[in-house]
Amino acid sequence: MQPPNEKFGPVAIFLHWFTALAILVAVIFGLVSVYADSAELTRTALLIHQSLGFIAFVVVIFRIVWRMTHPAPPLPEAMPQSQKIAAATTHGLLYLTLLALAVTGYIGLAARGRAISIAGLFDLPRVVPLDRVLSVTSQNLHDYGQYVLYALLALHVGAALYHHFVVKDGILRRMWR
Ligand code: HEM
Ligand code: HEM
Questions:
Q1: Average pLDDT estimate for 48-56
Q2: What is the pTM of this model?
Q3: 10-174 CATH fold
Q4: Which residue out of 49, 118, 122 has the highest number of ligand 1 atoms within 8 Å of its CB and is therefore the one to mutate?
């Protein structure tokens, strides 16, 4: 298959890998905060988790704006239309899921009146009412939302590796330096 000529721009590439790393580390510390057996570790892991989650949220918003003003390079013509639609759908759902996870994580804490420190530098303001049901619902959505993220990432990374190693159409290089 003919490799595409164009790649994503350096800003889009930087934002992609920065988000990927931030999400990976945020997920690890989210899990540590839930399964840690000392209060100290839970606190530290949560501080790192919510700080990275917040940073990822801001970066994802910036990324969406960047993407809307800087269109993606065209996909190879030989790629079936169904695959192009599947890729666009997965990407859209990834953006949505990341935003939803950050918002539900925030509401889960804010609605029960917890201070939410970002790296010890400042606290996020509370913009939701104090409401136990809202907090618990949001926290449940946050907990279950992680599986939506894992499923989308499995599809996404699986597709990227399939294109790189099997189809060999240069798709991974579009998102590389
Ligand atoms: C896109 C960013 C985020 C991702 C991918 C993410 C993912 C996760 C994951 C995988 C867990 C472990 C859940 C479990 O196994 O029960 C978790 C827990 C948690 N996250 Fe996040 N999170 C994100 C952002 C945030 C933000 C911004 C906050 C707060 C401002 C937050 C607050 C929490 C809290 C309080 C917990 C532990 C309590 C619980 O829900 O069980 N998260 N998160
Ligand atoms: C947390 C991890 C990741 C997230 C959240 C993520 C998210 C995304 C999103 C939203 C896009 C669409 C960009 C756009 O057109 O707006 C994208 C593109 C891309 N991602 Fe990821 N990604 C992650 C990890 C990875 C990994 C590990 C790989 C490689 C193994 C990868 C390979 C690619 C490639 C090749 C593209 C460009 C696809 C194309 O040419 O249209 N991603 N990613």
A1: 98
A2: 0.94
A3: Fumarate Reductase Cytochrome B subunit (1.20.950)
A4: 49
